[in-house]
Design brief:
One of its GO terms (biological process) is methylation. The chain is 31% helix and 19% strand. The chain is an alpha/beta fold. The chain has a single domain, classed as Rossmann fold (3-Layer(aba) Sandwich). The chain has an 8-stranded mixed beta sheet, sandwiched between helices. It is globular.
Length: 267
């Protein structure tokens, strides 16, 4: 696969640390391939092109993403973009017929994907840069395209991400291995850049995490059946309190909480 003239476009952005590892992004990938809006975008696309922006020093997570999204649509093409030529060279050494690598940043190398995954990228930028980065990526999307801007820890046990379309943010998702948290607000350190500085009293995201902590504490008795059952009881309590949680489409191993953006939009 050859990006062609797109390779001549000057990348927008700056090199990031490049930390990566096997299965680090497994929770977001599992969510992507079951989220109705994402699967609808992939299956309905004229050109099922997916971009993995800022994949890091090694192409591991790009190859994993390709394997997972091909379960939704077998003819998906994935392009990993990096702003560091040495990382692009490492990626191209592992390229396949369905996965390629190219030099690019927020301008997406002139490509027009139906899905962009940008994980652990904007976390390393000043918060004032987020709006411009989002806008640049949104402008490059194919019709009906989506962006996932997220952050996770080194082992992928604590993750948060925003889903966006051309018009703006759609939802916030918190996901974790509930065996490795003391309370839901432990995920605050992995909030996307647009929200991490908003986790203060008076802001909606702070209120969400506080409500989740209270529901988690109230579900302590369910812990005897395991942390996943306790998480499910936590979600049930939040729904009973009127929180607009997106319904779980299946029983999954990950502890996932997704709310409409309106629930956490900064004041």
């Amino acid at each position: 696969m050859d990006p062609g003239p797109a390779a001549l476009i000057r990348p927008i952005g700056q090199p990031t640390r490049g930390t990566t590892g096997h299965n680090r992004l497994r929770r977001s990938d599992r969510w992507l391939v079951h989220a109705p809006r994402v699967t609808a975008a992939l299956t309905g696309a004229v050109d099922p092109l997916v971009v993995d922006l800022g994949y890091g020093a090694l192409p591991i997570t790009t190859l994993e993403l390709a394997t997972r999204v091909r379960g939704v649509r077998p003819d998906v093409r994935v392009v990993g973009l990096e702003i560091d030529p040495e990382r692009v060279a490492a990626g191209r050494a592992a390229a396949t017929d369905a996965v390629d690598f190219a030099l690019g940043g927020f301008e997406l190398a002139g490509l027009h994907p139906v899905l962009v995954r940008a994980f652990n990228v904007l976390r390393q930028y000043p918060v004032d840069d987020v709006a411009a980065a989002w806008s640049t990526m949104q402008a490059a999307l194919a019709p009906g395209g989506l962006i996932v801007d997220g952050t996770c820890d080194e082992l992928g046990r604590r993750c948060c991400w925003v889903l966006l379309d051309r018009d703006g943010p759609i939802s916030l998702t918190l996901a974790c291995d509930p065996q490795h948290i003391d309370r839901p607000s432990d995920l605050a350190e992995r909030l996307p850049k647009v929200l991490i500085h908003r986790n203060v009293s008076g802001e909606p995201v702070h209120a969400l995490l506080g409500a989740a902590d209270r529901a988690w504490a109230g579900a302590a008795a369910h812990g005897v059946f395991g942390p996943r059952e306790r998480w499910r009881a936590t979600l049930a309590a939040l729904r009973a309190d009127g929180l607009a949680l997106e319904p779980a489409r299946r029983k999954v191993r990950d502890a996932v909480l997704t709310v409409p953006w309106s629930v956490v939009a900064p004041t």
